[in-house]
Design goal:
Two copies of one chain form a homodimer. Chain A is α/β, with parallel strands linked by helices and 345 residues long. Chain A has twelve helices and twelve strands. In chain A, helix 9 links the parallel strand 6 and strand 7. Chains A and B meet through helix 4, helix 5, strand 2, helix 6 and helix 11 of A and helix 4, helix 5, strand 2, helix 6 and helix 11 of B. The structure holds a DNA duplex (30 and 30 nucleotides).
DNA sequence: AATAAAATTACAATCGGTTGCATTTTAAAA
DNA sequence: TTTTAAAATGCAACCGATTGTAATTTTATT
């Protein structure tokens, strides 16, 4: 004998008014008098009424739900972005539906379809490792469902994106390594088709060039960049295989850099004396490894907040996000022991 | 001119049959002939039909959505649990709505209400740091919406929980410290009202007792256990303030333990020689700090999978989870350098 | 070919909230 | 008191899928 669900019809009957008035009263419609509104509100509370979102969504064609597609939940960076998004969304009365592609394009396509069928009001996405064709996102654009990319973005005229200046950050941190005396800096990074890695690579190369250092392909180590394959030794091994040994390494992920550092240390390399290391993200791990890791502070929580706020404001027609091409957040270098060949500053 | 949404009525008109047949055809109802079904399916695909979930939910009183309430997304442990949940849920056609309490009971209450109003089919929750009264969850129980707790659980006759044996794990790791020669072991942990911390505390005390060591309140350091307050030095300071200095520490969170280790090392303490350290969770950080941290492997991803599977099977009436009181997952100790006073094994 | 049985398909009500427009009530003006 | 305007409320259709029951068609049986 489950307690029956209360509807506006029940409230209407109770107060002997029409359901339409109840509906308007509950939504604070101006055509309803103060007095009636109060009666309705009170009765609704007393009877334990809760609005049926489906009936409402069915009528209004809105869900107050935002879909988020990310590559994986269990990454410090992603979890932090999500935390920021969730905060803003929940403050604004939106629910978040989150799904992970696990770096797999097939799954990303499936997720996009699920979101589409769930009729989310908007979508925030960060692409999987090797997604190139984004036609699975076209459905949103066609149906005018706002779509926004963050971090791993795709430049599309109908999709704003929220990013940091990866090029500049990479340029800056590479320059720092050079300034510390590095002459041969390897770059460990991910799939160069992804904007984040491509931009960092360009920044890195430009810094070398501007400082009279020559870039050769030998210096580029492409890696899967997965924090979760556990102690990854491949990259470290590849570094060690280079002859003569590099004296600097710019690794585009702190967790990954931490694993490399461990392997290098095990191989008897001294950091930063033999090789100076710089990471990316300002993962908490960067402050815990020995020596502490020089890195780029990536405002992940803020990125989540900004992305969510931008999308929600657009949904509410507060602002038109389609006027925006991209939002670039501030990032800054954090210099720590792992790169200080010249000794502490 | 946004393309109009296709409904079963459109398909019905196109094929000159009734909407009822279309509905049944799409859901593979046995009363519809093979031939008609095929026609319906093909036309639906051709016309770009997508089912309207609200209309369906309104009718069926189901949402295929599961609510998850956690304390915070940006915690390694939580993110990993969520990853496991998301995997299982998405495989089974369920969406996950995730909201974080940020360790705040007020927000947890608000989240529970949102979930309730969103009419989730079921809920998985891990309690906030100091939630004691769980009456905000009673609505689910009253409305027979299955509710399951994981990790930070609350024993309630209508709510199964998924946990590890915190008592045993703590007993084991404390015994290990003792076996390594520790005579004075401090315990750094969280709010003892939370089962996870209470159970670990009991296991720790029992291990001391069984080995003839005396427990005194001086050895207990209660801390907020937040990985995100950044370099937390309080606990480390408190340890250093104890006279004579302890020779062992069991800290119930790896990230937290890592921060403590850093502070202790800065204070000139040698680990494990002066103080042996043990953590909890098997956070990746445990394998990166120096020395590597002895810890308990907490099967977080598996916990997420198990919790989600249990709830979904219940929703699908495959199994009746209400027959289960709790599911205890295996955990095991991982011995690493931070606790090996007697040298590597 | 006639009839019964089985297999398909259609009708119409339902789920609960929303909203354009019509109607009633109340207040203000004449 | 009557007229008119403004404010408040009600009517009824609609959103799209589902389903019990009735109606129709097909197939099998004699």
């Amino acid at each position: 004998m489950k307690s029956k669900e209360i509807t506006i019809y029940d409230i209407a009957k109770e107060l002997d008014i029409s359901p339409a008035t109840v509906s308007r009263g509950l939504r604070d419609h101006p055509a309803i008098s103060r007095k009636t509104k109060k009666k309705i509100m009170d009765t609704a509370r007393a009877m334990g009424y809760r609005s049926n979102t489906f009936a409402s969504s069915l009528r209004l064609k809105r869900t107050n739900t935002i879909g988020v597609i990310i590559h994986r939940l269990d990454s410090y960076f992603v979890a932090t972005v999500l935390a920021g998004m969730e905060k803003v969304a929940s403050e604004s009365g939106y629910n978040l539906i989150i799904s992970q592609s696990l770096e797999n394009t097939e799954k990303e396509i499936a997720n996009a379809n699920t979101m589409f069928n769930s009729r989310v009001d908007g979508v925030m996405a960060s692409l999987a490792y090797d997604t190139e064709d984004i036609s699975h996102f076209e459905v949103f654009i066609e149906k005018k469902i706002p779509l926004l990319f963050f971090d791993r973005v795709y430049k599309h005229k109908d999709c704003p994106n929220v990013v940091i200046d990866n090029y500049k950050a990479a340029y800056e941190i590479t320059s720092h390594l050079i300034e510390q005396g590095c002459k041969k800096i390897v770059h460990v990074t991910g799939n160069l088709k992804r904007n984040v890695y491509a931009d960092r690579f360009e920044g890195y190369k430009k810094a070398l060039e501007d400082n009279g250092l020559k870039y050769t392909d030998e210096l580029l180590i492409i890696n899967y960049m997965d924090e979760h394959i556990g102690p990854n030794v491949d990259a470290a091994k590849q570094i060690l295989a280079i002859n003569p040994l590099p004296d600097g390494a710019f690794i585009t992920n702190d967790a990954f850099a931490a694993y490399c550092m461990r392997e290098l240390k095990l191989a008897g390399i001294s950091i930063p004396k033999d090789i100076a290391i710089a990471g990316f993200n300002n993962d908490p791990i960067s402050g815990l490894v020995d020596p502490n890791l020089t890195t780029i502070n990536y405002p992940s929580y803020e990125m989540g907040e900004v992305a969510a706020r931008t999308l929600i404001n657009h949904l509410r027609e507060v602002t038109d996000m389609m006027l925006t091409e991209s939002i670039v957040l501030k990032s800054e270098m954090i210099i720590r022991g792992s790169s200080l060949k010249k000794g502490a500053q």
